[in-house]
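Quick check before the chapter quiz. The format below is the same one you will see on the exam, so make sure you can read both the input and the output lines.
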Amino acid sequence: MADKTLFEKICDKEIPATVVYEDDRCVAFRDISPQAPVHILIVPRLPIPRLALATTHDAALLGHLLLTASQLARSEGVAESGFRVVINNGPHGGEAVPHLHVHLLAGRQLLWPPG
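Here is the expected output.
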């Protein structure tokens, strides 16, 4: 059996995190190195390594992650002012943990291009 990713350990409550939402498909928690006043990671319980490896069988889960991001933006009070949703894929895309996850960033002016 392969070693669990950091995010699997958080989902399984083996590593503490500041969880702001969870359901049977995902766990959302505050990033420990936030890049904006609101920086929440939304992690599927199913360990898909990265977006490029997702399949059509994952479509409902991927949609659920985005809808969860929108719901969290509303609950954090940033839906009206604006927020960014980011999915990093691979080393050049900024992927640090090989477990698909969605970044919800908000609470300040986010510039474009992101860098």
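If your answer matched, good. The mean pLDDT is 96.
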